[in-house]
């Protein structure tokens, strides 16, 4: 899949896993709606994820959380995730 900005192989796998899980749970429409509405605030959301990382680390593996937060700091990530979800639905 061609992306306007190159993602690393690990980042691409993470986006694919998220898209597959959304489609598996049949939450395509709510997920796309949420992602579209989050676009202007994706950087702020990523910073909040970094802030709450010590608390979340008690419940979830911190590596995945950090990777997702770093990925969300880039504006093009949400659009790429939306496109991946749409591609998996078709």
Summarize, please.
With 90 residues, the chain is mostly helical. It contains five helices and no strands. The protein has one domain.
Proportion of residues in β-strands: under 5%
Distance between the termini: 14 Å
Shape call: globular
The domain count comes to 1
Q: Helix- and strand-based class?
A: mainly alpha
Biggest β-sheet description:
none
User: Element order, helices and strands?
Assistant: HHHHH
User: Roughly how many Å is the radius of gyration?
Assistant: 13 Å
> If you average the pLDDT, what whole number results?
91
Low-pLDDT segments: none
Q: How many DSSP E strands?
A: 0
Q: Please, how many helices?
A: 5
Q: What topology does this entry show?
A:
Blueprint: H1 9-24, H2 28-38, H3 42-56, H4 62-72, H5 76-89
Structural features, described:
With 90 residues, the protein is mainly α. It has one domain. The protein is 74% helix and 0% strand. It is built from five helices and no strands. It has helices spanning 9-24, 28-38, 42-56, 62-72, 76-89. Helix 2 (28-38) runs antiparallel to helix 5. The protein is globular, with a radius of gyration of 13 Å. The protein starts with 8 loop residues before the first helix and ends with a helix. The relative contact order is 0.22. The mean pLDDT is 91.
Question: Key terms for this structure?
Answer:
single chain; 90 residues; mainly alpha; globular
